[in-house]
Amino acid sequence: MDNSNKFRTDFKYYKQKCPLPDLNKVLDFSNIIAESAVQSIKAVEDEYVKIKSEEENFIASLMLPPSEWNIYELKDNPGLLFIRNPFTPIGQRFWIYRCLHDYTRKPNRLNIDAHNILDSSKNWWNISQREDQESLRKKLRWATLGYHHNWDTKAYSENAKDPFPSELAVLAKYVGRIVGCHNNFSAEAAIVNFYHFDSTLSGHTDHSEEDMSAPLFSFSFGQTAIFLLGGKSLEEAPTAMYIKSGDIVIMSKHSRECYHGIPKIVAAQEFPWNIFQNSNRPSANLGGQKSSEDCPYPPCKKTHTDSTENLNEKQTSIKQERKNLIDNILKEEFWSPFHRYIEQSRINMNVRQVLCKNHVGLST
């Protein structure tokens, strides 16, 4: 064994099944009272956070007010920001639904495309719900959005690009503003990873993007991951930490170029997407948003008047779709297949900026 490769040594240790690894040294951000390895970071005060659009207002309504966010930074790895679950239960259900039902649809690309398991007219989620398609559910490992990452060349291409989901772009930019991290962030590519209890993610660095100064945003839902964050060399021993449902990890500054990986998925101790309080249930007539008493922000003011009926119709259609979705994910019969999946799996949305500021395409 190469003892100089401390990252690989720790990765194998936490991955092992017999004997099971000792998890007492894994950093748990839900219990860091006595931890000296992290420091708290203050979010931008609520009154200084100006909602910039109706869509951002909707995204913000799926989360707690920023003043209630618990944000931490690793002292030994500057730029690694950890936000402990700022999502409401409705917010978690919303993003779980988007990942499973919508982000697995064309034109997004899936790992199973290469095996011609489904033709382009069929939807993975709908087909995978059949009783005889359990194996298909586990075969899906990733989906790419926006600029599609080429796993062979480790590069992006203008010939492999589709529109990026606006809600996910708004989420990343909103979170970045709250923590004061790269206010000009532009979400242009994402990898949605689907993990099961036997899944791992080998140690690696993310270096395919042209703008390496822009952070990576990681949003996790479902079962718990043990995440290893090392240094810029494999010789540096990594820090092991739990990432639980709803947690957000931002890799910026020094940590942006560090090795990281996931050696193990462990069972979650609670299912926060099911932990409701009365105030968390949005009114059915608010299009998925909370009432003005519950929502941390008032509706944003319109800065212009829409001049075309088509635009008005599109906006109305989007609001209605969100309203219907929020109503449906509160119904246990509708939510049941999503719960069955997520109680055995973990979903991670990893969002990144590809292009340098003010660039409209990849450099040749």
From TrEMBL:
It comes from the Eukaryota. Its cofactor is Fe(2+). Keywords: Dioxygenase, Iron, Metal-binding, Oxidoreductase. InterPro entries: Alkb, AlkB-like, AlkB-like_sf. GO terms for cellular component: cytoplasm; nucleus. Residues 131-352 form the Alpha-ketoglutarate-dependent dioxygenase AlkB-like domain. Residues 282-313 are annotated as: Disordered. GO terms for molecular function: broad specificity oxidative DNA demethylase activity; ferrous iron binding; oxidative RNA demethylase activity. SUPFAM superfamilies: Clavaminate synthase-like (SSF51197). Gene3D superfamilies: Alpha-ketoglutarate-dependent dioxygenase AlkB-like. One of its GO terms (biological process) is oxidative RNA demethylation. Binds 1 Fe(2+) ion per subunit. Fe cation binds at residues 204, 206, 260. This is Nucleic acid dioxygenase ALKBH1. It comes from Frankliniella occidentalis.
